[in-house]
Write a structure and sequence with these properties.
about 25% strand, alpha+beta, single chain, Glycoprotein, Type 4 Pilin, globular, Protocatechuate 4,5-dioxygenase, Chain B, 4-stranded mixed beta sheet, Dna Ligase, domain 1, 15 helices, about 450 residues
């Protein structure tokens, strides 16, 4: 008893003929073959859904929920300090709708054509570290084994959404590169290579299935795995992959090794920090732990104490933005004090996020951008998203976007984002300024 097999399945509703009509033929190979930031969500409401949002209300589904597996999984997640909640609790914070979305209903539409006598336990992934998602997957397997259940795991998700011009998330050449790498990883079921995928490549690919794959992979930890990619295609600019994974005897558990790789990466990053980044981290850590701004260290380079400039401090957690605040002109007596003020603001005052907690500090990555003085420009031809940041102004409205950001590869995309930040419509007249940065990471 335990994990019988695992599958990766895409979830575009257009794969279903009642929704896609003739367009379904473009994904014929794939047909044959809610998101929470800080906690996994296990559905505990009545499992009902339909495809009415896609013009096919006649397709309705209802399933029996596996409450025994739900309880066992929640218990084990709590014991291992992996954040997991039920959808009943999550809905009060996220507007969670009590119906199955297409990420569940599309794969199950095809499954129920062949099997109907089963219980279901849908789980929504979280923006947790990949290693934690893998560990949660292992808990699914352990829960199934403890209860004597036979379980099949479906990872629902698409690959890159940026494969061709006009794709749903815009075009990026890294989308094809990402899909090719991931398909090869799945063919070999190479978890170490999965962990080694660069965050910048993942970001630029615009994928939605990687975290589901990590959970599924964790359910197979400790097994030898026979893997088979049944199909891959991307006719609408989105990568659809169908793959099968079957456990075949005992193998090596990789969980602790994956965690060690993560710990080593954090240690290496800390050891190689330059003074700008080290000051930002030291300041925020002291402020969060002790509630005070620390004195400036005595060993700072002189340049940080005698120069003035605008500074942006950016913070990421597990590859995702956790805070970013800055000044485009100096507001303090030197760059060091500018870094201190903006490090605290990025960690504790960014209105998009809750203030950083002490338990998060070890997982944070910092970058510090020191800005040149902005200069007015009168043409988009003077912009380069890799070299120049941009400021736009219209009356009291203004917006700023730093240069060389992941996923921002064209002037058009740079302007679209910064105008949206400023609340300025593209057809309005507005002023532009550009600036350069020295980035410390």
């Amino acid at each position: 008893m335990g994990i019988l097999s695992c599958y990766l399945m895409p979830h575009p509703a257009i794969m279903i003929e009642e929704v896609g009509g003739r367009e379904t033929q473009k994904v014929a190979s794939s047909v044959k073959a809610p998101l929470f930031y800080d906690a996994l969500c296990i559905y505990d409401y009545p499992l009902k859904g339909s495809l009415e949002d896609f013009g096919a209300p006649q397709i309705k589904m209802e399933f029996d929920r596996d409450d025994d597996l739900k309880r066992e999984l929640l218990k084990r997640a709590e014991e291992k300090n992996i954040p997991a909640v039920t959808s009943t609790k999550a809905r009060f914070f996220s507007g969670f709708r009590e119906k199955l979305d297409h990420g569940v209903t599309v794969p199950l539409y095809f499954i129920t054509k062949h099997f109907t006598n089963f219980m279901l336990l849908p789980i929504a992934f979280a923006m947790l570290p990949y290693e934690d998602l893998y560990a949660f997957g292992k808990l699914i397997r352990e829960s199934a084994e403890a209860l004597g259940k036979k379980v099949v795991v479906i990872a629902s998700g698409d690959l890159s959404h940026r494969l061709i011009p006009g794709a749903p998330a815009g075009y990026n050449p890294n989308g094809k590169i990402f899909d090719e790498k991931l398909v090869e990883i799945l063919k070999a079921f190479d978890i170490k290579a999965l962990q080694a995928l660069k965050p910048s490549l993942i970001e630029r690919a615009g994928e939605c299935g990687l975290r589901s794959i990590w959970i599924m992979a964790g359910t197979l930890d400790g097994y030898k795995v026979k893997s088979e990619v049944l199909s891959y295609e991307g006719p609408f600019g989105v990568g659809y992959c169908v793959a099968r994974f079957k456990p075949e005897g005992s193998g090596e558990s990789l969980l602790e090794k994956l965690y060690q790789v993560r710990r080593d990466a954090i240690d290496s990053r800390r050891k190689n920090e330059d003074p700008y980044v080290r000051l930002a981290r030291y300041t925020l850590e002291t402020y969060v732990k002790e509630g005070k701004i620390p004195e400036l260290p005595e060993d700072l380079p002189e340049e940080m104490l005698i120069s003035k400039a605008g500074v942006f401090v950016s913070i990421k957690k597990h590859g995702e933005l956790r805070g970013c605040i800055g000044t485009f002109l100096p507001t303090r007596k030197n760059v060091a004090e500018e870094i201190q003020r903006n490090a605290i603001a990025a960690g504790c005052e960014d209105p998009r996020f809750y203030p950083v907690g002490a338990d998060e500090l070890d997982d944070l990555e910092y970058s510090v951008d020191v800005l040149t003085k902005p200069e007015p420009i009168d043409s988009v031809d003077m912009l380069d998203p890799k070299k120049y940041g941009v400021i736009v102004r219209k009356g009291s409205r203004s917006g700023l976007l730093l240069p060389d950001l992941e996923g921002v590869d064209t002037v058009e995309e740079q302007l679209r984002i910064v105008l949206a930040k400023a609340g300025i419509r593209p057809n309005e007249k507005y002023q532009m300024e550009r600036f350069e940065v020295i980035r410390h990471v």
